[in-house]
Amino acid sequence: METAFFNTTVECPICKKENRFETIRVGAYVESGRDTDFCPLDIKWRFPEYANCNPLMFFVATCPNCLYSREFNDAFKGWQKDTTFKTYRLKRVKESHLEELAKDGSIIKQLGEMIDAKKRPTETAIARLLLAIFDEKLNERPSNLDMGRLYIRIGWVFRGMGGSPSVTEASSSDAGSGIDSKMKMWSDSLEALRTARKALFEEVESSASNGAGSSEEKATRLRESQESIIAHEAKLFELADALSKELSAQSQDQDESGESGASNSGVLDVFTLLSLLKQKWDGVPLNEREALKFAAECYQSALEDGKEVSAGNQQVQVCYLIAALSRRIGNYDQAQDFFNSALKVGQEFVRRYQDDKSRTALARKILELAMEQSQVNREARKEALAQ
Ligand SMILES: [Zn+2]
Known about the structure:
mainly alpha; Methane Monooxygenase Hydroxylase, Chain G, domain 1; two-stranded antiparallel sheet; 13 helices; 8 strands; 60% helix; 7% strand; binds zinc ion
């Protein structure tokens, strides 16, 4: 194997542009295993130049021309042969996508501006995954299963970023002049303010979800006040970003060589960009927990739909995932219900096809995980109740 990627040319169904998308070659990286929600662990590339590359960046193909985005799978690669898509879905999606794209400051455009595969791989991965969810939602009957698969991956990207937001690239550039260093000091302070706010809200959130006495109405009021604070905070970051760009433009005017000019990438990081987007689209998750919550909701809708999830392996897998995600977001009762469903459905399936070991291999693997994780969930629930 000489390269990590190969190119596949796919015509954009919306704008007709011929795009070449990169696909990761099998074996280009190895994983040490999978987390309990199937998130790949410890990815090691065989090509050192991709050491920091997140494979999730390539899960979705985004048209560089019109930003139409879809999971980069065989169905999309062969969309021209997909008569259902061409006859019943394409027209509506095309019209709605182009209409949204044409709007000033549209969600599609804003997400498109986050994409920069070389400089901002994490933001790019999140933006592409969100674009694909946005475009899926334009369908008359969006696939909950597909959206769940995209949301869970956004959760994994957040997980890979660690708990606290990284210091922005702009502020790590040399703090040369007085204005630059003071600008940096201010944006670092804003960052610290946000980190403290996040820690506070997480604490509030966990104590609220554990407390049995709090009413629904109180919880809603609390959530509203938190959202309002986050919105104001995002506005402050936006203003700081504008000022930073203005200052950097001025310093570049003064210094023709541009060498000492601060980076004009601004101070906006992915968390702020997403907070701003969330004001327009509620489906934007701001952290891992929220992304996993959305994923669990999509998988639940898929299950309730009755047609989306096929019996057997897929049903076991979906029940298990709802349970595993519910446990991760602290919804222990719901987790228990779905661990039980996964075990029931899985055991029935394995019993029915007991002579066909390859058919039930996946279900048996998930059954084992479900038993183990159901125990973990019971202990977590007990602990939460004791607090
Ligand atoms: Zn296009």
